[in-house]
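Onboarding guide, step 5: your first structure request.
Type a short instruction followed by the sequence, for example:

Predict the 3D structure of this protein.
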Amino acid sequence: RDDASPHGVANLTTRSPTDDASYVVDALRTYVTDPTTPFLAQLSFHNCHIPFIATDAARRSCAAGETCRTTNSTSNYTSEELDYYGCLTELDASVGAVVDWLDDELHAYDDTLILFATDNGPEVNCQPLGFCGGTIDRPSQAPGSAGVLRGRKRDIFEGGHRVPGVVSWPRRITGAPRVSWALVSTVDLLPTLLDLWDAKRPDDQEASWPLDGVSLLPLFDDNAFQQEERGLGWWYYNAVPTQAHGWGFRYGNWSYVHGSVSCTADNCSEPMLFDLTTDLAQRTDLKATYPDVLASMISRFATFNTSVQRSRAVESMC
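The system replies with structure tokens like these:
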């Protein structure tokens, strides 16, 4: 602890600035200085993870309506909201600073693949069913919105893990900006890079270490890309299925959920089945209508879980 430093926290060698998102950008500039040398950088911003503390300038800008707006409400922002949305605008500014640095200083923006995403939905769970009070834009439990999605961080419902992603690579991804609803996960990054570099894993790994992801290059290259149905599984906490934390599986438009942190009602101990095509908010459980689909989803999750547990036990080098 360093009481003389902003927020009482200091880096071991350099005091962190009040806007800690800018600190990450400054660190990138320090380590990457040669525009002719390819580089791989993962920038892990703290914003807007708890505890979130915005700068006074960001709070004032939000309160004045310069960077924030109220929707479906005439009430003023709470202090917690000013901190949260102030941190969000600081994150936005720092991402913009990275793009400007790539373009104006390194002159490498067109040739740089940028992937931007968060790892989960907003903080604070809304019990007993995963639906928050307030409005979609301003939940009463805590700042941050998952939109119409059910659940938030830690939840197996879509609001717990379904987040937007932005990809930029002007040299390769051309044409007008487009929106894709393809199912994509961070497990796809390794296969994408291997495909991009035309690299192969060692033969013994190819045979015995399956990859859960797929290459995203077809999505990047084809404006009319149509994704084949694929499956992905989820747990919360330590990748072990438990009733308290829940588990689930997504295949095509079907979503199977068995328990979730915010779901504490009596029927939450039962498996649930949702069709995301017509029910993105996961309000209508269809397990009684489609028992064969539910059985298939349970089986698919079991296969997925077995593979992952084997990977953790046999493949991990950590």
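Each response can be followed by summary notes, for example: The longest strand covers residues 231-235.
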